[in-house]
Amino acid sequence: MSHLEVRNLSKRYGDFTALGDISLDIAEGEFVCFLGPSGCGKTTLLRAIAGLDPQSSGTIHQKGRDISALPPSKRDFGIVFQSYALFPNLTVVDNVGYGLVSRREGKAAVGRRVTELLTLVGLPDAGPKYPAQLSGGQQQRVALARALATSPGLLLLDEPLSALDARVRLRLRHEIKALQRTLGVTTIMVTHDQEEALTMADRIVVMNQGAIEQVGTPQEIYRRPATAFVADFVGSMNFLAGTLVAPDKVKVDGFTFDCTAQDGLAPGAKVALCIRPEDVRVRDLPTDIANRVAVEVAELDFVGAFCRATLKVQGTADVAMTADFSSNLIRDLGVELGRKLDVALPPDRLRVFAA
Ligand code: ATP
User: Which residue numbers delimit the ABC transporter domain (predicted)?
Assistant: First the structure.
């Protein structure tokens, strides 16, 4: 069942269209990430859903109820901002209990709920403290507890981790995901961090210039990017400029590569042939393997867990791609600058996009 239905939503600021005709369904209990570069409209979409910045046109239904014209106070959500936005003059207990007190809940019930929430976010003893006495990660946990206090049907997270340092961010990623799973609360998180989206989301909505490029599970988005933008924005990708010469063949500077049949593109179309660096096959190539090319190692970058090599394709003017080599492979194959070797581009790992 859908928790949220967004239909034909647009947001204009004067002549500028920040969101153009967005439609999206979010299922009950789902964790969805809005992912995209700065300015793509993800915060605008989140704020429209909250009613903080109403849409110019279009509708939003929550659990079948039309909330399109309701003020934030009449909508059912809790929200966490990047900047924590805690009340500095209130203790943690009063921050977390704020929404419940506004609802005129009894003192004992508020006390019990606040204790429960602070335990849930791992801060059972922080109650008497003020926000300034807490670290950034602790403040964000308090903000999370405050957002969940009234047991909202929808949790909205606006870049909640981006102000935190890397280690805290990593830990909170797991904690928020675990909490969301335990509570089963429908959650939307805005992020520009692809790793965050890939690790946390059930589904990712990739946005670009006020429009949705693709909606899919992290695996779908990574493995089968629907557009060149998604292929480029999520993960690393090689783009080789070529021409489609048959439904399942792309010619790149004299080499013809087999790929899966391309329905939407006519032969003769200028295309980009794409492959991820980790999908370039670099060892144990059978003699009859498809898409074998001779390459020369032109650059070798140590990235920690592996080395990323830039490979110049022999017999071409300037066709090059990157490929990943584990340290074992580097040793076994004797990979070094100038080394010549054969690699293969598995047809099922190739993606083709109109150029
Ligand atoms: P970021 O990650 O940088 O926050 P975003 O994807 O969340 O980016 P939005 O904040 O949604 O982007 O903004 C989308 C576009 O709308 C941007 O080009 C922004 O400049 C524009 N915009 C946002 N708010 C306003 C406003 N109040 N008036 C005019 N333009 C606005």
Answer: 4-234
Q: For residue 113, give the nearest of 100, 123, 131 by alpha carbon.
A: 100
Going from N- to C-terminal start, the domains of the chain cover: 2-230, 243-354
The CATH class, in words, for 243-354 is: mainly beta
Q: What is the CATH number of domain 2-230?
A: 3.40.50.300
**For 208-252, what is each residue's pLDDT tens digit?**
999 999 999 999 999 999 999 999 999 999 999 999 999 999 999
Ligand 1 cavity residues, CB under 6 Å = 13, 16, 18, 36, 38-44, 192
- Ligand 1 atom with the shortest distance to the CA of 36: 6
Reported ipTM? 0.93
Check: CB of residue 145 under 8 Å from CB of residue 110.
no
Q: How far, in whole angstroms, is CA 301 from its chain's centroid?
A: 26
Q: Whats the size of the chain, residue-wise? A: 355
CA of 41 to the centre of ligand 1 (A): 6
**Beta pairing partners, 340:** 296
Output the residue whose Cα is nearest ligand 1's atom 12: 39
* pTM to 2 decimal places: 0.92
Going by alpha carbons, the residue nearest to atom 31 of ligand 1 is 13
Cα angle, residue 324 at apex, residues 319 and 329 outer, rounded to 5°: 120
Phi, then psi, of 17 in degrees rounded to 5 = -95, 105
- In ligand 1, the atom with minimum distance to the C-alpha of 47 is 11
User: Which residue's CA is the closest to the ligand 1 atom numbered 29?
Assistant: 13
